[in-house]
Every structure is written in C-alpha cells, then in structure tokens.
Design brief:
About 35% of the residues lie in helices and about 20% in strands. The chain is α/β, with parallel strands linked by helices. It folds into two domains: about 55 residues; about 190 residues, Rossmann fold, CATH 3.40.50. The longest helix has 15 residues.
C-alpha cells in the first residue's frame, strides 16, 4: 500500500522488488512526469497521491506480465515513437528487415505504389511513407481498432497513408501495386509460445491464423494466392514469417508463379522475410 506522499526514491525501491529496474524507472517517469535526471538528482522529491496510485497500479500489472508498451501506450521503432494499444501488436525490431528489403525494391522508382497488408499500428506503412516519400502508400487491416491506432500514428508522424478496413486485399479490387508487404499472423494456433513473454496480452488475431491443427501458414497462403492479381508486371511481394517457415514460403511463392524467390535472415541470423516478384 502506498504511504502518504512517498518520494521518488521510495517508490522506485518498492517497484524494483517485483519488476525490472528499467521498467520501474520508465513507469515512474510516465506516472509522475519526472525525468531520469530527476530520479538521480532528486530522489527525495515527493509524489502526489494520484501519481503514486497510478504507478502502483502499473507496477502490479507489469508484474503480472502485461507488456510495458501497453502500460505507457507507446513503443519505439526505427527511431520513431508509435502509439500502441491492446488492439495492435507491439513493434519488434526484426520487422526492420522487412522495411529495409522493401526500401531496396523501391529505390530508383519515381512514384511506386505500395500496400501494407495487416498494418496493425502502421509501423511498416508509415516507415515506408516517411523513408520513401515518393511512394504512394496504402494500408489494410481487418481490425477497426488497429486502424484507429494506425491513423493516429500517421497523423502524429506526418505520414501520408491511405488506410482501408477489410480482409487482406479485398478492399482493393482492381488496384495494382509495385510492392505488397505484410507482417501477417504466422504463429500456429496452439503453439505454446502464445502463452509466453507477454503474448497473451497481444491481439490473437494479429498473432495466429487461428486455424486449428494448422502450421501458421494460412494467412501467408491467402496473401500469396491473391497477390499476383494486385501486382504490376515485375512487382514484388515481401512478407515476414516464422523462423521455420522460409522453405514453405518460397514453395508457395514458386507455385503461384513468382520468380527469384528468396528468404532473408534478421540480425540474429533467423529466417525472417521471404519474397519474390512476378
């Protein structure tokens, strides 16, 4: 129980008994509005009751496994701060591989058209719009809640992205693109990893294809099957996938008539992104 007007130092010491030191510091800064310098130089500073109570509630939720990003409502990705909520996945650094490969494919094109499928918080679409400003970028998501977050992020960061609500490419009838990118759900339903490392708090729809007894490839199969009808001649399809899905992804691409299939590792050397072109 929080005592009347505790100090910054007292609150931090209490929190460190049950959560990570850095998490405790970040939550305390968020709850009180203080800086890291304040914590170091003025640990005796008194904290008003509402802020102390908010901090205590956050510490309890963090100790129960709720991700830090959901508690503070934001996460950093490629040097930018994105709003996040339980409607969207928390950005992962491995997704930067997808963006780097996409930027390579877009290099030298005057006004390439791009669509990001399953955009979530919008990190891929927004990063591409900001880092390849000549591109015309669209994004699709089935979740209205996710699209609200993505639109807010685009507005806050000054990115021009055309958002659509719907199932993969279904809202884009008749449209063709130079590049289709996606970070789709690829964890198999029933995979024990879904119960670890904060994943129970993240949206199930964004994590797994929800196919009982499947292998996690259901969404990737649908994207690959529909992509050719929405790509311009020579257009590329790039998507993120699980560590053991590279070969299966290349086989799906080849069977759908794509050329020059490849799989690229992330910084940890794990197979992370596959792609090909028409």
């Amino acid at each position: 129980m929080i005592v009347a007007k505790p100090t910054l130092g007292e609150l931090l010491a209490q929190a460190r008994q049950c959560i990570d030191r850095l998490d405790a510091r970040l939550l305390l800064q968020q709850a009180t509005g203080c800086t890291h310098a304040d914590l170091l130089a003025r640990p005796e500073m008194l904290v008003i009751a509402p802020a102390a109570e908010q901090f205590a509630a956050w510490v309890e939720r963090r100790a129960a496994g709720e991700p830090l990003a959901y508690l503070v409502g934001e996460a950093e990705f490629r040097g930018r701060v994105f709003q996040v909520s339980p409607d969207v996945l928390i950005p992962r650094p491995e997704t930067e591989v997808l963006i780097e490969l996409a930027l390579e494919k877009l290099a030298g094109q005057a006004a390439p058209t791009v669509v990001d499928l399953g955009t979530g918080s919008g990190i891929v679409a927004i990063s591409l719009a900001l880092e390849c400003p000549q591109a015309v970028v669209s994004a699709v998501d089935l979740s209205a809640g996710a699209l609200t977050v993505a639109r807010n992020n685009a507005g806050r960061l000054g990115a021009k992205v055309d958002f659509h609500e719907g199932d993969w490419l279904s809202p884009l009838t008749g449209q063709r693109f130079d590049l289709i990118v996606s970070n789709p759900p690829y964890i198999a339903e029933g995979d024990p990893h879904l119960e670890l490392n904060g994943l129970p708090h993240e949206p199930r729809l964004a994590l797994t294809d929800q196919e009982p007894g499947g292998n996690g490839l259901a969404c990737i199969r649908r994207i690959v099957a529909a992509a050719a009808a929405h790509l311009k001649p020579g257009g590329w399809l790039l998507f993120e996938h699980g560590y053991d899905q590279g070969e299966a992804s290349r086989n799906l691409l080849a069977a759908a008539g794509f050329k020059d299939t490849f799989t690229h590792p992330d910084l940890a050397g794990i197979a992370r992104v596959s792609g090909a072109h028409l």
